[in-house]
Fold this protein.
Amino acid sequence: MKPDNVSTKQERIASLARSTREMALTSLNHYIDYEWMHYAYECTRKDGAVGVDGQTAQEYEVKLQENLLSLIDRLKSGRYQAPPVRRHYIAKADGGQRGLGIPSFLRRQGGAAGHCDAAGTYLLLH
């Protein structure tokens, strides 16, 4: 279940976007806090393949609070850089290969934070 704090922030972002349609919202970092990131963590798939860093969701969870606080700090300071995506190829029926991009857990976590923001705001706008 989504925490009230996250819902309130999404409603505020949607309200700002509705009231100032001509203005672009360039940064929403000030809305991201521990509760937001923890909710994003809960929304993140935990059973995906490991990315280039080899870190599993279970390993990330061992130091969850430390990892989330570090991610928040990097996001807010502009130092966050998404880890590269691991490339894997699978055979296609026609004999060719199909490339797959496998993100690290950190990249999925960061993406979930943005998705919580973008999806929630989009739903509130429409």
In short: Helices lie at 4-19, 34-43, 57-62, 64-77, 105-125. Strands lie at 86-91, 97-102.
